[in-house]
Structures are given as C-alpha cells and as structure tokens.
Design goal:
Layout: E1 2-7, H1 21-33, E2 39-44, E3 57-60, E4 72-76, H2 89-99, E5 105-109, H3 120-123, E6 144-148, H4 153-162, E7 171-174, E8 200-207, H5 211-220, E9 228-233, E10 243-245, H6 253-257, E11 260-265, H7 278-286, E12 289-293, E13 313-314, H8 317-324, H9 329-343, H10 346-363
C-alpha cells in the first residue's frame, strides 16, 4: 500500500530540537506501521530543517496537485494560523490537493481540540483571498474518515456536529495513537534509575492552553514539601515552590521525566473519560509513576486489570504525598510498569492499525 502522510499547519520534521508533539505523533505512527511493508511518503514544505528517516519518501506539498497516486492519505491534525495575516501557500496547496483527491482521506486526531476544518470560512475575508474561490478548497466529506485518539467515538461525532466549520467525516474510528511510542523498542529491557534514587518527586512536561488544566496543574505541582520539576509552554502558571524550565524537544521528554519519581497526569476538560495522552506513555517509558487525576479517568480504564492500579489515582495533593511516602514504593512502581507494558502489546497495535486502514480502503 502506498501511503501519503501530511499535516495541517506546521511542517513535518524530526529534527533534534523540534518540540512539536504532532511531529512526535507522526514519527511514532511511522514506527508502528514499519512492519506493514508499505511505501510511505511525507508531503510537507521542504526546508533546510526538514529531517526524515532515509526510508521515507519526501514530496514538497507546494508542488502536490492531488494524492490520487497513493492508496490512502493520512492527514495529521494541526492548528490553522496565518501569522501576521500573511497567506500560508503550503496550507492552501494542501487543501487544493485534497480537493482533487478521490482516495480515502484519513484525518488523524491526536489532540481533542483540533479537528478537520473547512478552509474557506477561515480565509474568505482576507485581502489576499479576493481572487480565490471556495470551490478550489472544498473537501468532499464522503472521502473523509477519522482515526481519533478519543475512545468514545460518539463523543467525537457529537463534538463535530457542534464544532464551527467542521468537515463531517463519513466514518469515525478509534485508534490509541498515544501508545505508538511503544513500537520499535523493548521498554522492559531498558536500564532505569530506581524511583527512590531520582532527583525530583514530581515532574510534568507539556503545555497549558486553558484555565481548567492550569488550575489542576497548580493544584498538584506546588507542594512545599515535594521537589518538583515542570518544563514546557507554561505561560500564566503561578507556582512558588517548583523549578520551571522552557519546553524541550519531543525526543528529550522521556530523558527529562527519567529524573522524576512520579507525574500527575491531568487533561483538558473534554479529555475526561475520552482521551488518554502521549504524556502517560512517555512517563511510563521513563519509569516514573503515572498518577492520574481521577477527573480524567473516572472509570479507571487506564489501570483496568492491573494489580494495585487503584493506588495510582489521585483526587488531591495529599493523595500524591501519601503515594510518594509509601513503603516499598520502588517495588510498586516497577511492578506496575511491568504489568502495564505486558498489557500493551505493540504487535497488536500494529495489526489493529493495519486492519483499520485496509478496511477503509476496501470500503472506499
């Protein structure tokens, strides 16, 4: 199968200093699909900073007329921005190519706040769009399929019906993209520092984009008697007892978290009982305890069937302290990590994604 991979918004590159979680999603997806014996081509704006694996083809999106010479195209989610009001020629050409595409267009949703939008309503009133037409950017929804990280596909459908300028897909499927980081590595054999020998009690890496998540971060990560590390895009955060660093590349996330004993995973409000995140699995690979704000997973789905899994859910800061001061903490964290990794089989993930993509192609 010939698969095109492209992205809304920022360019695709796997350079060492790239802090984009979206590029991480693409890299891990490619790693997951590697065993499928497919031919992959990344379609993005080629720049001096474009770095891809040698086995992956590259096509400059600015010269792409359609994706009809492929069997399927995966469009990874991203933000649509026109910085300074300037026209983004690469984005416009992507939509022109999608307009002429007759093969399945699979929108990959790894971020619950990002969805496949109609382009014309976002540009029609801009001065540089005066000689453009709506028809050249139209994407036929009958060609569009969603592969969402959200576990509740009905929630996704309901959200899209209410979302402004949304392209409504023909079908919505769930796939756990957050687990693809596990592909291609044997995490069980990695040498890890024991939790008790790490510098920080708590760590968090990521970004904050709304008040709900900010309040939850400030609630858990500013305890005077805990040594805490935060890094990422954390504008507006108010902490007095925490070390805060700038964002790091996605390839450095696990290394930074490997110096922390635990992390409390919080999510945006609409992630509750719907989205698990890449951060959870980065923390798991780093060997730190993946503590979950109970609002995010009220049904205990992440630790379902895992011995002592209920101990990793927290409601308040004192729950975090109680967890970190437990006897035999090293043994608890290490054994729980082992159980989680045993239950998440990358080979099953590979097979599931292969079957979904083949089913979409057969149906289309």
């Amino acid at each position: 199968m010939k698969i095109a991979i492209t992205k809304i918004g920022a360019n695709i590159t796997f350079s060492a200093n790239n802090g984009s979680a979206a590029n991480a999603d693409i890299l891990y997806a490619l790693r997951t699909m590697k065993g499928h014996k497919h031919e992959f081509t990344v379609c993005t704006k080629k720049t001096n900073n474009t770095i891809l694996p040698k086995s992956i083809g590259l096509r400059d999106i600015r010269s792409c007329q359609s994706f009809n010479d492929f069997d399927i195209v995966l469009v990874f989610n991203g933000s649509i921005n026109f910085f300074g009001g300037v026209c983004d020629d690469s984005l416009l050409q992507l939509y022109r190519a999608l307009n002429k595409t007759k093969i399945p267009i699979v929108f990959v949703q790894t971020d619950g706040a990002l969805y496949f939008q109609k382009l014309w309503p976002l540009i029609e009133k801009r001065e540089w769009a005066s000689e453009l037409s709506e028809s050249e950017f139209y994407v036929d929804q009958l060609n569009v399929y969603y592969l969402t990280q959200g576990r509740d596909t009905q929630k996704t459908k309901d959200f899209l019906r209410e979302a402004k300028n949304a392209i409504i897909p023909y079908q919505v499927h769930h796939f756990p993209w957050e687990q693809t980081i596990l592909s291609g590595i044997d995490a069980s054999k990695e040498g890890l520092i024991k939790p008790s020998e790490r510098t920080y009690d708590l760590g968090f890496g990521g970004y904050i984009r709304n008040s709900h998540k900010q309040r939850r971060i400030e609630r858990y990560y500013d305890e005077v008697d805990l040594k805490t590390l935060l890094f990422g895009n954390l504008r507006g955060i108010k902490l007095q007892h925490t070390r805060v660093l700038p964002k790091v590349s996605f390839q450095s996330m696990v290394a930074y978290m490997s110096d922390c004993r635990a992390s409390v995973v919080v999510g945006d409000y609409f992630y509750n009982d719907h989205f698990f995140t890449l951060r959870m699995y980065e923390n798991l690979l780093a060997g730190c305890a993946v503590l979950i704000d109970r609002q995010l997973d009220t049904r205990g789905a992440f630790y379902h069937g895992i011995p002592n899994g209920d101990l990793f859910y927290v409601d308040k800061p004192s729950d975090v302290r109680d967890f970190l001061y437990r006897d035999n903490l090293d043994e608890l964290i290490i054994s729980t990590r082992h159980s989680l990794l045993e239950k998440r089989d990358p080979k099953e993930l590979n097979s599931k994604l292969k079957n979904i993509l083949e089913d979409i192609c057969d149906l289309h």
